[in-house]
Amino acid sequence: MQASDYRTILVEHAAGVARVTLSRPEKRNAMNPRMHEEMAHALPGLVADPAVRVIVITGAGSTFCAGADIKEYFRDLENRPDERARITELARHWMWDVLAQAGKPTIAMVNGHCFGGGFLVSLACDIVVASERAVFGLPEVNWGHLPGGAASLKTIEAMGARMALYYAMTGENFDAATALRERLVTRVVPHEQLQAQVEQLAASLAAKSPMALQAIKEIYRAAPSVGMAHIHDFVQAKVDQLRVRDTGGLRERGMADFIAGKLRTTETGGAKA
After folding, report:
1. What are the protein's GO molecular function terms (predicted)?
2. 45 pLDDT exceeds 90?
């Protein structure tokens, strides 16, 4: 498969930012097997590409993602259990092994409805910026089904077990303000400002040291399991690692600016007295 073969996603690059658009607007960007194939092909390359410093995920049209394509994912594969298992594993892999573990910042730009599997995509990203019009939900129980994959773990991590269980059991939708209150999104913005604000945020992150951002992500992922007894040693190990990897002296120049009382907003400059 090549990028020119993509039929369900659109990948764009500009100024260190890769934007991946789930692009089945006629199906509200519902995820079918083909989309999982294409995401599993596209994301590893973006994560490995040093020219890509930030990855943004969004949806085409007025919807982020309506979840799984029930016909193509369930009905069409009903009598093909091996193929369904393969696609399920592919979906798990690109969301949780690739996107969630990326060593660079990832942003979900939620422009509308964000349900089921689409909700999982947002949970797999580091930062979620939602339009004030966005609507979230885990509606699977309404069809006698269960929230997929890591939904239970990730919603519990974000909002706590009681509220996570409530939304999983009721299948109720909730708006962006509720998602912000329940810590499922990072920021809610006016709909007409969504793209501009995400672009500004992505550009700001792209201007920072990718090595420092990777180390920060690794520390914050590991901190709960590392615990207080070992976190200082773990962070010091990352500092030492950063010093070894930073052959260009960016860290030393940054520290010099800090000691001199300058405010630095980018990796290579932007210092203010």
Report:
1. lyase activity
2. yes
List 21's β-bridge partners, or say none: 10, 58
- Prediction pTM value: 0.88
3-state SS assignment for residue 86: helix
CATH for the stretch 3-206: 3.90.226.10
Supply the DSSP symbol for 71. Answer: I
Q: How far apart are CA 105 and CA 95, in angstroms?
A: 14
pLDDT interval class at 273 (50, 70, 90): very low
C-alpha span between 146 and 155 (Å, rounded): 14
The string of DSSP codes covering 92-143 is HIIIIIIITT-SS-EEEEE-SEEEHHHHHHHHHSSEEEEETT-EEE-GGGGG
Say whether 78 sits in a helix, a strand or coil. Answer: coil
Q: What burial letters (b/e) apply to 203-229, b meaning 16+ CB within 10 Å? A: bebbbbbbbbbbbbbebeeeeeeeeee
Over 80: is that where the pLDDT of 54 sits?
Answer: yes
Write out the DSSP string of 179-213. Answer: HHHTTS-SEEE-GGGHHHHHHHHHHHHHTS-HHHH
What's the N-to-C CA distance of the chain in angstroms?
50
As to burial, measured by CB atoms within 10 angstroms (0-12 exposed, 13-18 middle, 19+ buried), residue 171 is: middle
Q: Give the start-to-end residue ranges of the domains of the chain.
A: 3-206, 210-259
Overall average pLDDT of the 198-215 stretch? 96
